[in-house]
Design goal:
The protein is an alpha+beta fold. The protein has helices at 4-18, 114-118, 121-125, 137-144, 154-157, 169-178, 192-212, 219-227, 232-235; strands at 25-28, 45-51, 54-59, 63-68, 74-79, 90-95, 99-104, 108-113, 255-259, 262-266. Strands 1-6-7-5 form a four-stranded antiparallel beta sheet.
Length: 276
């Protein structure tokens, strides 16, 4: 499932492809939305805002298209009116003279006025988006220790989009690893140093993933391992998807468990429940 960094990168690609060019056509593959298609002919894309895993595509005619990729949604950028070979279903297309932005497989798509989009339940409920909102590590620590969140386990909190928008399964494992926090713990169980590290890691790793196209391990380490012929699936992350492999810090074997019905990876030595 795409996480916040992937959605923001997709938004950047869409903006680069079709912004500042007259829209020839907006196509919707979902029948209830097809009545809105004529609204966008001749309009221009104004900007794209992202809130976690949601995207607000703003047009200069006062309308916004809200989309959420959910598990399988994926954007493609192609030359105008050309399509990839895929078994996915086309749900939305933005066509200009030179480029087309194509959304496949997503089903959570709405057309609203700009004001209606700002009041969408997901947007109103979402927590801070680390790529788009100005938020500091100190502000995140205050959020961690608030009565709303401090007694919930990290493993469920980090997937809760009202806690922090845009964090998903791989970022969850990576943030807890860098903060040296065991998956069974809650913010209330952690030291102030761990809370600060979790806040700094959340910011750093979200931005690193966005800037590198999904790498959360140390970029220099990843580059060296890549040069040595290590597969991307192994050098991309510190612990995620590396069950049984050696921890890059201490050498222990990475473990996998299930938390909040999804897999999580951790180092049993670096992320002990209690620290000496």
């Amino acid at each position: 499932m795409p996480e916040g960094p992937e959605i923001r990168r997709a938004a950047d690609q869409i903006e680069a492809a079709v912004m500042n060019a007259p829209i020839l056509e907006v196509f919707f593959g979902l029948e209830p939305l097809q009545e809105y298609e004529s609204l966008f002919q001749g309009a221009q894309l104004k900007k794209i805002e992202t809130k976690g895993k949601a995207m607000l595509i703003r047009f200069d005619n006062g309308y916004t298209v809200y989309s959420h990729n959910q598990l399988y949604g994926k954007w493609f950028i192609r030359s105008s009116y050309t399509y990839p070979k895929t078994n996915r279903q086309l749900r939305m297309a933005i066509h200009t003279e030179k480029k087309s932005a194509l959304l496949y497989s997503a089903s959570d798509i709405l057309v609203m006025t700009d004001k209606e989009a700002d009041k969408h339940p997901f947007i109103l409920k979402a927590g801070p988006d680390l790529l788009n909102d100005e938020v500091t590590a100190d502000e995140l620590v205050k959020r961690f220790v608030s009565t709303s969140f401090c007694k919930r386990k990290w493993v469920s909190l980090l997937l809760d989009q009202s806690f922090i928008a845009g964090i998903g399964n791989y970022l969850r494992s990576e943030i807890l690893f860098e903060a040296r926090i065991h998956p069974d713990l809650r913010p209330a169980d952690c030291s102030l140093e761990q809370l600060k590290q979790a806040a700094e890691s959340a910011l750093r790793l979200t931005w690193r993933s966005y800037e590198t196209g999904g790498i959360t391990a140390d970029p220099e380490l990843a580059a060296r391992l890549k040069k040595e012929g290590v597969k991307r699936s192994s050098y991309r992350h510190w612990v995620f998807n590396r069950e049984g492999e050696h921890c890059r810090i201490c050498g222990a074997h990475i473990k996998k468990t299930m938390a909040a019905s999804r897999r999580i990876y951790y180092c049993p030595d670096c992320q002990r429940k209690t620290h000496p």
